[in-house]
Specification:
Number of helices: 15
Helix content: 40-55%
Number of strands: 9
Largest sheet: 4 strands, antiparallel
Number of domains: 3
Distance between the termini: 87 Å
Amino acid sequence: MSEKIEIFTDISAANYFQDTNGYWGFMYRVQKLDGSWEQKRIRGKKRNFKLKKQAKEYYDTEIVQNRRITTKNATYDTVAASFLEQYKMQVLESSYERMTKIVSTLSVTFGNSDLSKVTAKNIIDYFAKIYDAYSGSELKKRFTVLKAIFSHAQQFFELRNDPFKHIKFIKKDQKTYEVEDFWTVDEFNFINDEILKRLEIADETSEKDLLLEQAILNTLFWVGLRLGELIVLNEKDLYKNDGVWYLNICKTQTKVKNGYETKQGTKTGTSRELPIDNELAALLLKMVDIHKHFYGYDKNKALLISKDGITPISRNKPYRTIQKYTLRHETINVHYINPHRMRHSHGSVLLNNGEDLAVVSKRLGHKDTSTTEKYYVRIYKKRLMNVINTINKIKNIEK
């Protein structure tokens, strides 16, 4: 276990000693911020150092590497590196990786900036510049992380100014960005085409990963599943009847006290058998072939499987996949939506192309059509207005 991170300006060499039980420990001194020196003692028995070599390695790796020499002119990159090192000790690897990406994104603008000279106006100007390009949640993440890095600088780098005390994060106006709740077919195709381009030059390992990403996105967009329904799909849930391919949606993943568990039935309690197009069926059959090739066939195995070949994909995998081709992609100009909005996209595509509200409601697994109306109120109102146009057209014809 790592020692608590210490803040000091200098450190002495270690003096090693062997106690009466034969364990090796050491003492060292650190110079604190006020210039005074403080002696530290590491007992070998507590850490089971039976060899002097073990004590030396501990001093070099755990004590010296955890030193924090402060500077009044700390740059963003310097403070961010320290922040990430401390953050890594507190969270899972996946959380650390996500934080690293946000920190790196901010580094493009603030990398070499002396944080003592960064003003509230500099930060406001940055967010004003990117405001229209990103979702409210992405803006909030960047704001929170940048604020945390400044807080870290105050705690560990003697930073005295706090520009964030003059700034309040204002939520993005949801009404202005209603259109971003969904993807159009064209927007989805932009992303799907990008995956197809990558598949053309992919090796075997990359091909497997890309096909999984393609299967996740296509199933969400063209079937409209809830995230919990997607994750627990088994290979046996994909079947063909009278020349038509189906997905049997008969279970879901639900949140419980200690995590998630699979339960029979769906959120509304009813199962549904959904016909799917041949192109999507072929893609999902490729996933089955991959399972056979790499992991062995098992009809009870998850249809969308993680890299260990045993467990289903994590709940974060669809989020990361969408982010990969939106927020973190330089050439695809498609806004980010979360996996549940892919489900809304499916419903909106069907309604916009003339499908009956009751049919869409049943396909999505809504309890009744009133739920569907609530989520697709804008489209439904537009459809109602089209009724007037139809009536006017009929009257004109009759005249």
